[in-house]
Design a protein that fits this description.
This protein is α+β, with helices and mostly antiparallel strands. It contains 4 helices and 7 strands, in the order E-H-H-E-E-E-H-E-H-E-E.
Length: 148
């Protein structure tokens, strides 16, 4: 059984980000601006975690950090979404995505946006399945969006 939960406790957010860090092509904790990214996620993002039951205890297996605070433009942003390797392909990412989209709609957002590495074919395919389209291209990344 998988549960998606909004996490408010900062130490739990940090613990989950560390547990899932190796699923990203460029790991968060290896970036030069790691501390700033973590500070922003902790202070400004909605942080949803996916948990599975293991021997009577719920353990985290993935998360999504989503910003829904650009009220003037109606933009929500996915900062990161990742699921531990053993649990990929089990629709956990989709559960996290649906939760984020639902919350963005509830908050009155019009669009969901994100940035993804051009080399991350798996993530690009996932986002395209969720109706994201490339709206512009950077040097190493695509900027994608979808309507809500």
């Amino acid at each position: 059984m998988t549960r998606i939960k909004l996490v408010n406790e900062n130490n739990e957010k940090i613990r989950i980000m560390k547990l899932c860090d190796n699923v990203f092509p460029i790991r968060l904790y290896e970036r030069d601006n790691c501390d700033e990214i973590i500070r922003r996620i902790i202070n400004f993002a909605l942080f949803y975690a996916a948990y599975v039951e293991n021997e009577g205890e719920f353990v985290p297996i993935g998360y999504a950090a989503i910003y829904v605070n650009d009220v003037n433009n109606g933009n929500a942003y996915i900062s990161s979404i990742g699921v531990k390797g053993d649990y990929q392909g089990q629709h956990i990412g989709s559960m996290l995505m649906e939760t984020g989209l639902r919350e963005a709609r509830r908050k009155g957002m019009k669009y969901m946006r994100l940035e993804v590495l051009k080399t991350n074919d798996k993530a690009i395919s996932f986002y395209k399945n969720w109706l994201f389209e490339i709206e512009k291209e950077g040097k190493d990344t695509f900027y994608m969006r979808r309507g809500l």
